[in-house]
Specification:
The chain is mainly alpha-helical. 71% of the residues lie in helices and 1% in strands. Strands 1-2 form a two-stranded antiparallel sheet.
Length: 333
Amino acid sequence: MTAPRLPLRARYDWGWGTVSASVLLWAFFALFLAYPLAETVFQAFVVDGRFSLTFFRLIATNPVQQQAVVNSLNLGIVSTVLTTLIALPLAYVMANFRFRGKVWLQALLLVPMVMPPFVGAIGMRQFFARFGSVNLLLMKLGLIGEPIDWFGGGGFLGVVILEALHLYPIMYLNVAAALANVDPSLEEAAQNLGASRWRVFRTITFPLMLPGYFAGAAIVFIWAFTDLGTPLIFHYRNVVAVQIFEKVGDQRVNPMGYALVVLVAALTLVFFYLSKRYVGGRRYEMFSRGHAGDRERAPTWLGCCGIYAVCVAIIGLAMLPHLSVILTSITKR
């Protein structure tokens, strides 16, 4: 027997408040999302009042534009990998161990997320520049004769390090939330059957937390792939975001900039779809769910010292560029 269909009025609340809020939301997204996207697509495909793919052909044949796309992809991929190497062990340790000062460390690990990455880039350049603080100190101590180029001349290494130190809290939060939803009884059952901790993590914990990891990795990749401020500070200009900024920011707008915007949007959607389909689409269900606190155990004294050392080192590295900006602002030279 089918359920009777309710009148439209009964199924939806069409009061004045709901209608007004809906109109305001649709107007907001139409004005600040749909209209800019439509204008960008129009400027990219319509040249002199006619539909044209000229600038997309130029992107496909111009070595400079091709290299910019490759550099942006490399930046996004390497930043995501490095961020994973930082955030995944931190989230695993915080989810599985109980020790004094854990709440304070968890709060300090999130501090880099509230600071703009280009500010850290300014501090990092000031700190590790050719005649920056590190080189001047080493030369004064007589350890080196000539200044060291810490970032290899191109700036790629500096941009990757800054992106990872700024974005690891985003992945850390996603992975920590995913680990909190993993049933500890499944891991205990696997250990009772003789599985090692690494095999438990590889076959049970990581597959169950994969959707959360995918969410954090997608954000990190898209952020690094489209970041503008950090590559500008490090003079790593041959990336898509800087190319768009230079072409669209001119007094005479270059349609190539709009074509690059459309290309970036299309590539982002393609990579998101492929990763969602082949990585984030793997879902594993749990029939029961134990208490997340049941997984926590007290580490040994040596393990606790190691956790503190790693966390303090990461927090110190993440805060070092910002500290350099503060110190530079109050010094005479």
